[in-house]
Amino acid sequence: MERFEFKSETKELLQMMAHSLYSSKDVCLRELISNASDALDRRRFEAVKDPSKLDASETLEIKISADKENRTLVVEDNGDGMTREELISNLGTIAHSGTKAFVENLKKANPNEQSSLIGQFGVGFYSVFILADNVTVETKRVGQDKAYIFKSTGDGSYTIEETEKAGFGTRITMNLRPSDAEDNLEDFTNEWTIKQTVKKYSDFVQYPVMVLCEHKHHREGVEEAEGHDVSTCNDPTHQVTEKKWEQANSMKAIWLKSDKEVTDEEYNDFYKTLTYDYQDPLLRININAEGNMEFKGLVFIPSKAPFDMNYRDTKYGLRLYAQHVLIMDKCQELVPDYLRFLKGVVDSSDLNLNLSREILQKDKMIGRIRKHVVKKILDALENLKTNDPDKYMTFWENYSRVIKEGAASDYDNKDRLLKLMKFISTYTVSEDEKQASDAKDTENGETKKASKSQTTFEEYIARMPEDQKDIYAITGESLEVVRNSPHLEAFLQKGYEVLYLIDPYDEILFANVPEVQGKKIVFIGRGEVELGSEEEKKEQREKLESQKKDYNALMDALKDKLSNEIESVRLSSRLTTSPACLVSQEGDMSPQLQRLISKMGHNNMPQTKRILEINPNHPLLQKLLTKFGANDKDPMIGKYAQLLYGQSLLAEGSPLPDPVEYTKLVTELMVGSL
Ligand code: ADP
Prior knowledge:
This protein is an alpha+beta fold. 40% of the residues lie in helices and 19% in strands.
C-alpha cells in the first residue's frame, strides 16, 4: 500500500466540501453519475475502434445501491476504468488549471451560485466529501489485468493498492455521514431520495441509471385460507422482501423531439441539468436543419452572462453528438468565439463517430453546422428585439460586449450584429426624462425611476434631420460625465442626436467598423467640427477667420504657457456656453480608452497631447483678450491658462494632474475678486 499527499489547493477544496458549503448537497450524486457516464462514453468510443473492448453481451450502465445499516452508498459503472497512474493524476490532483480562481469565486459566491459553480468547474469527484467521511474507489482499466483500490478520508492524504475486481470499470463506495434534515443533508441511503435525485439531475444521461430497490410482496404459494386477502395481509411470515434493479432515468434525448411534444418546464429542466444553472434560460432556440446537412440543435442563452465568459482559458462550445452518441462536451468549433455564452446540444446523423479534434477543425460539415447555428441565433435575437423589447434589454445588458466583439470580428454577419446594438443617446435620455416627469405629474409627486431606454442605429438614422450626414457619438467614462460635456453644445443647438458611448469597448468596435449603413461614425470629441449646410459652414469659417486675427497672439501665449500639456490652441466652433474644451486629433484614442489600456497593464503607451479649443464668443475669453491686449506680460495670463486647462479636464471627467495646484489657483482668484 502506498500513501500519497493531496496538493495544498486540493486540501483547501476538500475542506470546503466537508464543511458543506452547498445548499444542494445532492449535486454529489449528479457529479458521480456524470463521471460514470463519461467513462461509459469513453469505453463505447474505444470499442468503435477496437470491438474487443466491449463484449456484445455487456450492457453499459450505471448502478447505484445503498446499505442502510452500514450507511454506505455505491455508484458503479462498467466504463473505461483507470490505471494506477490515472488514479493518481485524475483523483489525486485537480487537473483543472483554474482551481485557484474557482476557490476564490466560491468564497465570494452566494449559496445558490456555489452549487452552480461546482459543476462549471468540475470539482466533480471531490464532491463525494459533501456526503461522505471517507471513500474507496475500486477500478479496473478496460483491457488490463490489474485492478486498484484508492482510499481517502478527505483529510489530506490517500492510499492506493492492488486489488481484485471482476469486470472493467469503476466502483465508488462512500461512507455517508449521518443525515441531518436541518443542515439540508438528506438521507442518501433512502432509495426514494436516490431515485428523485437521479431524475432531477441525470434524467437525460444516455445510459440506464439503475437503482437497487426493495420490493415487499406476499409470498407465493402460501396456503391461502378462504377469505385470506393478499392485499391486506399483515402476517410477517407471509411477506418477502426482494431487491430489484429499477431504472431511474428516462434517457430521453429531448433535442430529438419536436418542440410540441416538450413543455417549457421540461426544456428548462434540461437546460439546468446541462449547465448547472439554477435560473431558467433567457431564450431557447430549437434548430431542425434538413437538406444537405441534417442536424438537430437545442441551444440556450443563459439569463445571466456566465461569470467566466471573459476568462481567457474558459472552455466553451456546444455539446456535440453524432448519431446520438456524445462526441465532445464542449465543441468550440460549433460556435464563433463571440457566441461563447451559448449552451446546448447539436446532434447530427451525418457525422462520423470517429471524429477527432484535429479533423473537427477542417470538417466541412462542422463548418456548415456552425454557420447555420449562427444564423438561427441571429434570427432569434432579431425576433426577440422586435417582439419582446424588455427581454431583449436583459439580453443586451448581459451580452452587449460580445455582440460588439462579433461585429468587429465576424465580417459576414457584421451588419446583422450592428442591427442588434443599442445605445443611450441625447434623444433617449431626454425621452426618459420627459416620461419620468410625466409620471411624476400623474402619480401625486412620486418619481418613477427613469428607465434607461436605448436606441438602435436604424431608429437613430430615421430621426436624423435632412442636413445631418454622419452619425455623431461622444465617448466618456459615464453617462453623468458625457451628458454634461462641452463637446455636445453645438450639436444640441443644431438638434443633432449624439450617441453616448460609455463602454470603452465601443471605441474598439468603431475603430474596426467606421461606418454603419453607409453613414460615418464621427466622434465629436475628435478633430474639427463643422455643422450645418454648406452656406452655414462658409459663414462660420469666415467668422472664425476674422476672430482668429484678434485671438492669434493670445492663443500663442496660451500655447506657450501650456506647452507641456497640449499640442496647440485653436478657436472652437463646437462650443456655445463653455469657455474651452480639449479635443483629440483625428484618429487618436480617447483619454478613457488610454486609461483603460494602461489599467490593463500597458504602461508604455505614448501619451498623445490634445488640442485646447477656446470659445471666442465666451465673455471669459473676451475679457482675457482685453487683459492680454492691455499687458501681454501680465502674470495672470499664465494662471488663467492653467485654469482653463483644468476646467476642460474636469468637464470631460478626466482627473486633474495636480489638484492641489488647481485649488490654489482658484482660491487665489476668488480672493482677488471678492
Ligand atoms: P472532471 O470530471 O471535471 O474531469 P473529476 O474530479 O470529476 O473532474 O474527475 C477527474 C477525472 O477522473 C475525470 O476526468 C476522469 O478522467 C476520472 N474519473 C472520474 N470518475 C471516473 C469514472 N467513474 N471512471 C473513469 N474515470 C473517472
